[in-house]
Structures are given as structure tokens and as C-alpha cells.
Amino acid sequence: GADFLVFRPSEIAASVALAAFGERNTSVVERATTTCKYINKERVLRCYELIQDKIAMGTIVLKSAGSSMFSVPQSPIGVLDAAACLSQQSDDTAVGSPATCYQASSASKRRRIGR
What sequence ranges are listed for the domain Cyclin C-terminal (predicted)? Predict the structure, then answer.
């Protein structure tokens, strides 16, 4: 988590795209980063290597494009709710999946028309 704070969002996005593409050949990664003129190649490569290290340690798990861990939130508030659910989970207790947490929080936030 905190290791990635030193990188710009565009550098992380480029690194994640390369990792998701499944390319592990450094020369191909270097060629891909040199074609983007607004990206700092060295920083993208460092971020990519960090991602690869996290994958090797089992900290990050890449999922295929067809699989989904949980449903996509329907609104920006849903994104924040899902993030809050993930941050509430700890090693001691499992709060529930983000989808379950999102559905529960969105249901409780609905307006009541009749009083």
C-alpha cells in the first residue's frame, strides 16, 4: 500500500497495465514505456518491479478480466462506501465482502418519503 504513494497515478496505471498484460520481459516493458512521451520510464519500471515483487510475495493477486471479486458500485458514493468497507476489515474479524457492505450501506442511505 504505502510503497506506491511515491508514484504518480499515471505511473501506477502504466505499471498495472503492463503487469495485467502479463509481460515479464524487461526489454518489452522498457520498449513499451519509451513509446509514451509523457511518462518517466525509470519511475514506471520501478513501480512495475514493485508490483512484480508484491505479486511474487502473494501480497497482490491479479485477476483475469472476466472474473469479478465483487459488484461494481453504482455511484461515486458507492466507491467510497466500498473503500470504507475494505479499510474496516482486519485480520481478526471479517466484516463481509465489499459488495455486501456496499449493498447494506446504500440501503440505509435511501430517503424515506413517508414520515
Answer: 3-55
Where along the chain do its domains lie?
2-57, 76-108
pTM above 0.85, yes or no: no
Is residue 21 a contact partner of residue 52, using CB atoms and an 8 Å limit? no
The grid cell for 102 is: 456496499
* CA angle centred on 5, ends 58 and 94, rounded to 5°: 45
Most confident listed range (21-30, 52-61, 67-76, 92-101): 52-61
The C-alpha atoms of residue 37 and residue 31 are separated, in whole angstroms, by 12
Dist CA 103 CA 76 (whole Å): 14
Q: Per residue in 14-53, pLDDT tens?
A: 888 888 777 666 677 677 777 777 788 888 889 988 988 8
Give the three-class secondary structure for 87: helix
The contacts of residue 72 (CB under 8 Å, 6+ apart) are none
Nine-digit cell at 47?
513501480
